[in-house]
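Our platform keeps sequence and structure together, in a single record for each protein. Such a record has a labelled line for the sequence and another for the backbone structure tokens. The tokens are whole numbers drawn from a learned vocabulary of local backbone shapes. The remainder of this section carries one protein's record, kept here as part of the documentation:
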Amino acid sequence: MTQSAAATETQKTLPQNGRRGPSRRLVKLLAYWCLAALAISAARIWFPESSALIETAWWTGGALLIGAALLDFLTSRRVMGLEGERRLPGNLALGVRNSAHLKLRNNSPHTLQLFACDSVPQQLATTGLPRKAHLQPEQEVTIEYTLIPHRRGSANFGRIEVLADSPWGLWQTRAWLGREQSVKVYPNFLGISSLQALSSEQTLRMLGIHQQQRRGEGMDFRQLREYRLGDSQRQVDWRASSRLHKLISREYQDERDQEIIYMLDCGRRMRAKDGQLSHFDHALNGLLLSAYVAIKQGDAVGLHAFAAGDNSSGGQLPPVKGESAINLLLNNVYNLHSGTGSADYSGAAQQLLAKHKRRSLVILITNLRDEDSVELLSAVQLLTRRHLVMVASLRETAVDHLTQKPIEDFSGAVDSAAAMDFLHRRTRLLKQLQACNVLVVDSRPELLHQALVEAYWRLKRSGKI
């Protein structure tokens, strides 16, 4: 997976000028002139002998202001020599702070005083705009501001907007620079980027997972090496040993080319939030990181999303393997969103069975509750006839907090009792799943990636996949 550091498209075009309008300075001066009329009215009462002189001064000041405004309007120029260019990262990651740059250049022979702003889509939060800039002829300035995406999908930027002051600052001309631009907001893939240069063992250590070495017990031949203390006799390659006049062992690795299919619940329950991210976004982060580990082990990963929102795209990917698999998965889920409907576990299981005949590890990522028991148990019973099934459920930390919160009044006691009953019913459902030979992962949303990788690695080392 690669991530370009900056956009490759240069956006230099002639500015599109809008109409000119009064600046704040002109509006303030006109407001002061109108307030002076009230002062003149009071002066007629307190200083009647000077009222004529004051009134003449007021009219003179008004005439000078209107004349200056008219002259400034006539001498103000259209913004024809200004160029604008926007530079964005090639991709954005959800919730990650990024820097964007507006590059402005004054090719006109006149000094420009202006305010610059950008047409940023609503799904991105910004800081550092608008900004004031003073450009001499042939001068260039770069304005940096920050972007923090809070929704995945395509982010469409409009043109750069500037307000250029007239020579005396009484009028402003609105202009649009550059071109429209689009950038994709992905799930937080920076964790994957940090793991790319690492080996499988280093990747697991970085994720906080401790593996037990089991040398030579896999099914696929890996390499020949010198005999080590602890190797079994069946590992010794006697032909190679006789040729090299020393003991040589065969080293094996776990079977590769297994298939892992993620069943992702996109129903309304996954819209619940823990911190800044929803359960659905936490599920995507966990899915991507665990899928990356599986791909590095040589396995194929696929996706079967169900109950997705109407504005979603993607969500269906047959098992793929190799270096390009994680990019295919990222591009398949970046615009996938949770819907407002309920998850249909049985329907999703039947669709999966119709598409995937080969025995695979099916990982269902959802948010379980007691009311799901009948439909969910029916769905996993269908799946276990052909596949090895794992159910990964996200715990709602708000419920855990209620059970840990000290009880101070009757309302607190009711909340605590309700939370304990909710967790008890949920635990009972998880035990029912385990009784159906289903592997269960119960994790807090922010730790789901680690829990999924640990469960996958246990299965891999046990030889079940």
About this structure: Confidence is low (pLDDT under 50) at residues 1-14, 195-204, 209-218.
